Amino acid sequence: MTTIGLAAGNRDYVSGAVTVQGTYGYGWSSTPYNENNGHNLDFNSNNVYPVTNNAYSNGFTVRCVAR
Predict the structure, then answer these.
(1) Which domain holds residue 47?
(2) How many independent structural domains does the chain possess?
(3) Model pTM?
(4) What is the distance between the terminal CA atoms of the chain, rounded to a whole angstrom?
(5) pLDDT tens, position by position, for the chain (67 residues)?
């Protein structure tokens, strides 16, 4: 069994509160979806959603990855 330890949650774009810590993890891709949204990876303990998009105003983590 593989364990992912990056369930950092996100910042609510309205209130600024950090939400869903320890439950969901989100991370931005370096590729934009459009001028307001970015591609991101979402995951929880049951699923991984590799190709989604969300507003940049959500405070997702940024991971630098060398290619």
Answers:
(1) 10-62
(2) 1
(3) 0.54
(4) 27
(5) 444 445 566 667 678 777 766 677 778 887 889 988 888 888 877 888 887 888 887 777 766 655 5
